[in-house]
Amino acid sequence: MLQTIQVEIDATGRIHPMEALSFKPVGRALLTLLDATIETMPLQINEGRGSVARALTLLSSPRFVRRPAANTNEIIKRIAAMRDDWDASQ
User: Fold this and answer.
1) What percent of the chain has pLDDT over 70?
2) The domain containing residue 33 runs over which residues?
3) Domain total in the chain
4) Residue 2 lies in a domain
């Protein structure tokens, strides 16, 4: 079975898992090197760093602030129309 784990490589070339492993990795592996810049690193869900800052940045972004507002009554009407539309017996 293939498994993917996230690791860090130190200056000496040693590989260190980013989280505790429930198994002992033995055998062969393929290694994909990722760009190490902050902008391209994926969010570390298990560490939680940056998630709040990124969410606040999104919520205060001009694009998010200018997003179109939905009309609640129109949405309810559209949902009801779609719900009834699929039933061919009506």
Assistant:
1) 77
2) 7-85
3) 1
4) no
pLDDT tens by residue, 49-83: 567 777 888 888 888 888 888 899 999 999 988 88
The answer, as to whether pTM is greater than 0.85, is no
Is 22 within 8 Å of 16 (Cβ atoms)? no
Domain assignment present for residue 79? The answer is yes
* Contact assessment for residue 74 and residue 68, using Cβ atoms and an 8 Å cutoff: no
Is 1 inside a domain boundary?
no
Tokens of 15: 């590989």
* Distance (Å, whole) CA 73 – CA 79: 10
Q: Check residues 32 and 48 and name the one with the higher pLDDT.
A: 32
**CB-neighbour burial class of residue 86 (10 A; exposed 0-12, middle 13-18, buried 19+):** exposed
Is there a domain that residue 72 lies in?
Answer: yes
